[in-house]
Amino acid sequence: MSRKKKHEHVNHERWLVSYADFITLLFAFFVVLFASGQADKKKQQRFASAMQQAFSQMALFEPHAKQPALNSGSGSNPDAEPKPLELPLDTGKPASLEQKVAKLVAQQTSPDGGMKLGELTARKVQDGVALSLHEGGFFASGSAELRPEAVTVLQQIATQLPAMSIRVEGHTDNLPMHSTMYASNWELSSARAATIARFLLEHSTVNPSLLSVAGYAEFHPVASNATTEGRAANRRVDVVFLESSPKQ
User: Fold this and answer.
1) Whole-angstrom Cα distance, residue 46 to residue 91?
2) Which of 159, 222, 232, 248 is least surrounded, with the fewest CB atoms within 10 Å of its CB?
3) How many CA atoms lie within 13 A of 2 on its CB side?
4) 46-81 pLDDT, tens per residue?
5) Helix (H, G, I), strand (E, B), or coil: what is residue 139?
6) What does the pLDDT read at residue 61?
7) 148-159 and 97-108 helices cross at what angle (nearest 10)?
8) What string of H, E and C letters represents the secondary structure of 66-79?
9) pTM score of the predicted model
């Protein structure tokens, strides 16, 4: 008599194990996505804050709000000060000729420049901008020979001359000339202008065709010759940077 085969019990709930694994994987996947999204918001918040501060400092855009218009619940620290971006942008206008000459004066009359305040001045004139070299810092009275202490300053000026038309003008006060070398203020003013012009040519790359020399004696004063201070201001050599080239 043959034995009856016993039927094995079939587990119909085995699919639950696979389903549970699948749900676990999905949960882990969404957790990773959520964490990534939070990190991106933090980066976005920091980037927006840095951009706003950078543009505010450069005055490129008008700030409309203290905080960027982002979700406040992004997890960023509102008290943290973002570092401004170092953008290679130059928003300033090009310096004018007058500003460049004024800067040159400031460099030479600084404590390390070698010139006292007042021995170099700059002013706007009809033809352009004049750099005035006053007698006290560059020449002895009645002489057209450069003082030794003026050489270094003139060398620094020569290296920074722009490639433009320049007129070197000699000026004196109205006191009569008493010198065996110069018959009048005309000769003295012209000699001083020529000395400065020759020095600038020898120590710069300026084209000689752009340089001219003039002697005006006492007839183009910048102050009254009735006072000692006024006469001292008039004894000068002007290096005039011409904004428009003279007609040929």
Assistant:
1) 24
2) 248
3) 3
4) 766 765 665 454 444 444 444 544 444 444 454 545
5) strand
6) 43
7) 150
8) CCCCCCCCCCCCCC
9) 0.60
